[in-house]
């Protein structure tokens, strides 16, 4: 018995040491399974639902592990394909950029060729025109070019007339401010931006002009004119009084050039009809109407400047003796009004006739059915509201429904002597009264009115060039038309 038991134990130990090597389905590692025979392994693996795992792989789910491995393998393949596609895209993009560069270079070459071709065509056309021109045309063209250059120079003179001083209105405003300075600043004077040498040259010319004027027995005026650095002494005709327009040619010219459409001057003392000073003060594109005192041409006088595009008609007034007047019917676009310029000498006494004559003139102008704009120097103190003379004049304005737009002093010694009076419906938008004593002893009055400019009318016009008409077809069309057929008596009766 004991011997048999010992034998059995030995056999079991030998059996424990024996086994079969199997492969893990999870990690594919071979390991020994003690106590398993080949027949047992074959029997176990015969079942498809049986899997063998090692100790390391037995801790995780086999299905998850298999799926994860397959996903990782698939992702790796996808990444490889994406890298290949990205590389192909980069190659295609580089090729497209190269093609675009070639196209842009081609377009640039075509543009340069087109520009060169256009320039060449223009030069050929110019050459053809030059070859077809005759000698007389060439001379005519050169002469015309010279005349145009002269015209441009003459225009530039008007533009640069006040280049250094600025506009005339600016100069007036500066003078007004200087007159309001304190006594401690009364010696301040305006000076232009000149160099030391230019000041010396100008002073010398002014002294020479003054000497010539003092020594001139004919009484001519000598003035320094010209651009800065290009001055010269200019001789004018016989001297007039300081109130004459002769002394204020540049001032009047500058005021009109600053944007005035109409300018009325009183007490001009221009003396002769068509005095050259009137033309010197008149800018291009303007015309004028003047009045000269018949019994005393050297005093009084009226001048009205206005643009050439304004239609006008000078109205004939009845004989007047207490004042001077010009009446003009102005048509500006579709606006029509009567401009009445008046001047009453301050030395003449005010009589009853002075009130009767304006009434007769205003009655005549009212019949013409147009608005009235009265501007002038009446030398009557309208600011004295209790004065019978002022009251009588205001009554006349009220009778004809006229409104005065000046209510401040207009003379250097005080008093409202200059008036701007209009019909109550005439649109006077603004009236600016400049300080007196700058241009003359009277103030310069500037008003703004509203003139509506109509919109231009356009029309479509169809024309046929007779040079392009086929004569044969035209004759055939006439012959085949009813016009060329003989008419019947019935047609005539109808």
From TrEMBL:
It comes from the Eukaryota. Transmembrane segments: none annotated. GO terms for molecular function: catalytic activity. It holds the Pfam family Exo_endo_phos. SUPFAM superfamilies: DNase I-like. Residues 260-442 form the Endonuclease/exonuclease/phosphatase domain. Gene3D superfamilies: Endonuclease/exonuclease/phosphatase. This is Endonuclease/exonuclease/phosphatase domain-containing protein. It comes from Helobdella robusta (Californian leech). The lineage of its organism: Eukaryota, Metazoa, Spiralia, Lophotrochozoa, Annelida.
